[in-house]
Design goal:
The protein has eleven helices and 33 strands. InterPro entries: F-box-like_dom_sf, F-box_dom, WD40/YVTN_repeat-like_dom_sf, WD40_PAC1, WD40_repeat_dom_sf, WD40_rpt.
Amino acid sequence: MATTTTTTTTTTTSSFSAVVDVSQKILFSTPTSLKLYNSSNSSLNNIINNNNNNNNNNYNITECISISNNDNNNSSSASEMGLFKGINNSSNKNSRSLTNILNSSNKKSKKDIKQCWFDKLPEEVIVKIFKELEEEKDIYKISLVCSQWNSITQTNEIWMNLYKKKSFHKQLLKHNVHEIDFKCVLKLKSNAQSNWKNGRFKCSVLQGHKENISSIIFNGSKIVSGSYDSTIKIWDYYTHECTDTLMNKTTVTTMQFDHSNKKIITGSNQGFVNIWNLETQTLESSVKAHYGFIGCLKGNYNSSIFCTGSKDKEISVWDIDRGCLVRKMGSHRMGISNIEWCNVNPNHLISTGGDTAKVWDVETGQCIRSLTGHAFVINNSCLSVKNQMVATGGEGSHVTIWDLRQNNYSKLVNTASTIYSLQYEPELNSMVTGNKDNMVKCWKVDTSSLEQTFMGHTSPVNIIHYDRHHIVSGSLDSNLWVWNYDQSSSSRKVGNFHKLEGHTDMINCAYIDETKIISGSFDNRIRIWDFANQKKENRCSIM
């Protein structure tokens, strides 16, 4: 039976209203923004110019929008919605509302105000303002203000920007973004969140491999699996049929899609790097890249560059478009266990080998920094890199967190057990570890304190996925657990949890996003745990 234990810590939380202060900056602060307006006989322009000449005047946009909204016979005004809360919180006695100025200086009617406000703003300015909203409900509310805003809120750019803010699954945003209906994506994501919470999912089994599953990747419509049987199988995500089988000469140890999602790069146990064309199912390139098996392979976001790390202690840089080796970088004293690209500087790569992590400049091939401090080996799946922060764990029962902007490591978290997997989220000040003692632990990083312990697994936890809503853990005991956060609680505490049973041997790899888990096991099977229950007519090419 699964249980959770909580370590109480004092937390201070702050809630912020929808970010619309940018509208004031765009409309009333920057002189360059005035170029966006039609200057001919515009009373709004006169007001803006007056504001630029008198910094003591603050204009309350909320009142103007409220009038326009009420003029549309909508009972919920924009001010009641809290859409523009915080734009004018000044206590300055000289503050004047935009409505009052329009009424007094121009003798405009409410209809005129509506025309002035809506018609004089270029659409690109409104889109820029709306892109600052952080919740779907806010966008839906402002769509009720008037027909023009309703039309603008259908702009895919607004929904794509919201998706980027809310999603932990942005790596599929690689190409043809304009073809994706992000409003549909967010709706699907919202439905899935309810299913995650209530433990509702559809489970499907993919069978075909003759040996253990070593790697799984997903590009939105196709699942690709690698196995110790030296084959790569391509599965249709919606029909669950195996559409193609690629015969690899050696065991596939790791895989990844290229930046276009049209090619597959594989690493093998004998040091070969193969590049496969997903559309033609042909082998485009095969290179003996290393003298030991390739344990890690990572592409550099939206570029054609990728790196491989091997037990031969070396890191190689490749160009997938040319199918050739760019350079070999320096080496570690022991085999390479992890490599990750820095999301802030695309030229920087972080690798681990033995008890050391290194930061590389792939442009020059030089090691620009060594991160030392571990007394024991850093394990596979125990490197997390995000926003200039690096977390490493493994043997020795502690996690070291490095700030690349500082010379020394910033935090040392004592985990009391060997780490087999971890994920660190600097923005949430939180880290989750999968431990040898069969436990999943959630840590508050700034205080190095244990927030919660999740007990349900009966073997070491080798897979961790963590986002704002839940934790997914996989284990050598063949089971997956979903630990849902209690969204009503100010602290990040688990409200409920669900056990996903079905595999008959240890779970070796998994692909996890907001709507699904695709797990590969040593039982030679792949299981799809679909929390969105996507129908054929509601397919989404990104999730």
